[in-house]
Amino acid sequence: LKMSWFWFYLPLHLLMAACLCHSIKAPTTSSQQSFKTDLFNFYHSLVLADGKETTIHLLKDIPKRYYFVLEEGGALAPFSITVTPCDVPIEWSIFLHKASASFLGKAARGDRDTHEASKPQKAPSIVSTIFNYKGNSVETYMGMSSHSALYVLEFLSTERDTHITVYLTTDTTSGHLYPELPMDPRIDVIGIGHTTVTLTWKHSPSVLQHGENVQYCLLVNEKHNYKSLCAAETAIRSSGMKLPPTLALSLSPYLLEPQQVMILSNSELSIINKASSGEVRQICMGTKNAYTVPNLSPSTQYYFDVFVVNLLTNASAAYTGTFARTLEEPEPKVMELKDGKVTQVVLDGKKQKFYSLQYQARYKKIKFTFQLCHGHVRVHITKNGKTVALENISGLRYFSLKGKLLDTYLVQLRSTEETNSSVQVQVSPHFHKPLFPLLPESLKIKSFSKLRTCNSVTIAWLGTQEESKYCVYKKRIEENQVWVELRSADRCSGPESRHKSEKVLCKYFYDINLQRAVTTETIQGLDAGTLYLFDVYLFGPSGIPVRYHSKVVKTRKKC
């Protein structure tokens, strides 16, 4: 009896395949016909695991099939299948193959005649399509199975290569892999400002039951909503950015790429991915079901998606996404410039709008000074409505202008790139002692490759005819930090923003002959094969510093 039972259950997959391959009586649709042919390769096909999320990679126009048999001793058994497309819409179907009872009866008795067993047997079989779907939404099929049925899932992508996740389970009573969504899974927009949007959503039952292992994560972008966290991560990667392994578990700054900025405050994790197509923000806020998204651009449409994430399994479920447009930016007020006062202006590169400053001359000869702090800025100066200067500035730039008393000057500033820029502006009488130091012809720092050793590097920079103070700072950096350090350098910030341990030395020098106004410095005590960022600060009579362009140098590995 035990052997007969063994012969019925152990080779059930093989017996079903044999019966289906030799005699399949099914509807003659093209999909089912191709499926019949494929059953001859059953022994090389993939079996779908029960109780485990499976990632499946699909090639364009090439169907992929997975098989499974659910055996419950003749009783009907519930099961569910959840499919999550991670990119483009896909087609997927579930086929049910059911062999006749007479064939299974013979299989259960176990035919001992090897001669008879070697002959091809014909057994009637019924094949039917029990589910079919096309799209990119997360879909779940729930059904009942008997021991005499073989199930086949067929997946097809007609647009391009992609990947999906599939979860099959027969344990429908002891919890869920995916967090549960509330009865109403919509996200409500309850407040809109010029740079903020406030959202709220109903709590997930999973958060209320297992709050310590489940949290909410919000995705913000300017393109469209995403129907799954898997689809969002795929879209971000395809835009040229790299993600940490998991959105919900990206708690370490060491996992970030140079294109990413991570902000962790008040128990909220925020990761900003930067690309030419715009920003994608990811914020994980624990179990709070309301959030105000800050630092948005005015008059811009944003799309918001909330995902409830199981931290133990990394499985997630998506709320129904929403969108909102921030309010129009009010007309910018014209700021008045005052004699000798330095004003710093931050320019929004995304909107490419002008920032206006106005000055009414109290002297005939005046001088405008612009110190570029970050990015690239275009300056347009008009006097009584007529253009007197129009230029893209870099570094420190002076404009000496002559006019009449009470002439009205309007300065318009605009960022020339999509990222934000900042600049310091000063206007003063022509005879006024300048706040900014006299600058050399170039603010570049030069390094000498032949003078590099394992523990030292030699750098040089130009000086001026005016005796000034120069301070050198160094900072050890990693390969993947170079882009961020050079890109984010603020040329208006002084050494006060640096750590004391980064200071190397300060020195005074000048030369009446500009051809000889150059100095060198050898920095000792460095580590072999290590990247260092070097900065030089120039201080004028007023004490306001000007930062040279940062220089990255790597010491030799072997000497």
From TrEMBL:
<keyword id="KW-0677">Repeat</keyword>
<protein>
    <recommendedName>
        <fullName>Protein NDNF</fullName>
    </recommendedName>
</protein>
<dbReference type="InterPro" id="IPR055271">
    <property type="entry name" value="NDNF_Fn(III)_1"/>
</dbReference>
<keyword id="KW-0524">Neurogenesis</keyword>
<dbReference type="Pfam" id="PF19433">
    <property type="entry name" value="NDNF_C"/>
</dbReference>
<dbReference type="InterPro" id="IPR056225">
    <property type="entry name" value="NDNF_N"/>
</dbReference>
<dbReference type="InterPro" id="IPR019326">
    <property type="entry name" value="NDNF"/>
</dbReference>
<feature type="domain" description="Fibronectin type-III">
    <location>
        <begin position="437"/>
        <end position="545"/>
    </location>
</feature>
<comment type="function">
    <text>Secretory protein that plays a role in various cellular processes. Acts as a chemorepellent acting on gonadotropin-releasing hormone (GnRH) expressing neurons regulating their migration to the hypothalamus. Also promotes neuron migration, growth and survival as well as neurite outgrowth and is involved in the development of the olfactory system. May also act through the regulation of growth factors activity and downstream signaling. Also regulates extracellular matrix assembly and cell adhesiveness.</text>
</comment>
<keyword id="KW-0325">Glycoprotein</keyword>
<dbReference type="GO" id="GO:0008201">
    <property type="term" value="F:heparin binding"/>
</dbReference>
<dbReference type="GO" id="GO:0007399">
    <property type="term" value="P:nervous system development"/>
</dbReference>
<feature type="signal peptide">
    <location>
        <begin position="1"/>
        <end position="21"/>
    </location>
</feature>
<dbReference type="GO" id="GO:0005576">
    <property type="term" value="C:extracellular region"/>
</dbReference>
<keyword id="KW-0732">Signal</keyword>
<dbReference type="Pfam" id="PF10179">
    <property type="entry name" value="NDNF"/>
</dbReference>
<dbReference type="Pfam" id="PF24354">
    <property type="entry name" value="NDNF_N"/>
</dbReference>
<dbReference type="InterPro" id="IPR003961">
    <property type="entry name" value="FN3_dom"/>
</dbReference>
<dbReference type="InterPro" id="IPR036116">
    <property type="entry name" value="FN3_sf"/>
</dbReference>
<feature type="domain" description="Fibronectin type-III">
    <location>
        <begin position="179"/>
        <end position="316"/>
    </location>
</feature>
<dbReference type="InterPro" id="IPR045805">
    <property type="entry name" value="NDNF_C"/>
</dbReference>
<dbReference type="InterPro" id="IPR013783">
    <property type="entry name" value="Ig-like_fold"/>
</dbReference>
<keyword id="KW-0964">Secreted</keyword>
